[in-house]
Amino acid sequence: CNGMGGDLRIEGTRLMAGPLISTMMYCDGVMELERAVSELLGANPEYRIEHGRLLLSGGRHSAELKPAP
């Protein structure tokens, strides 16, 4: 529901994001997910690609992203 943006660069196996900016609208049902994504990116997560999926892990969070059909 909110927009998020910022600089992103790759250093070795890490995504270095930030500073991140975001809109701050109330979004019923997705606020926790948005917060987790922001925390994950802010933790400069390690990344790897396996079987066509992008895996991110850093801080208390991780994500597995696959291409949209």
The largest sheet is:
3 strands, antiparallel
The strand line-up of the biggest sheet is: 3-4-5
By DSSP, the count of extended strands is 5
In N-to-C order, the SSE pattern is: EEHEEE
| Residue share in β-strands | over 45%
Provide the gyration radius in Å: 13 Å
Mean pLDDT: 94
Helix-strand category: alpha+beta
> Globular, elongated, flat, extended or rod-shaped: what is the shape?
globular
How would you describe the overall organization of this protein?
The protein is globular. It is of the alpha+beta class and 69 residues long. A hairpin with a 2-residue loop joins strand 4 and strand 5.
Blueprint (SSEs and pairs):
Elements: E1 4-11, E2 14-22, H1 31-42, E3 46-50, E4 53-58, E5 61-65
Antiparallel strand pairs: 1-2, 3-4, 4-5
In short, what is this structure?
By secondary structure, this protein is an alpha+beta fold.
What are the main properties of this structure?
69 residues, alpha+beta, 3-stranded antiparallel β-sheet
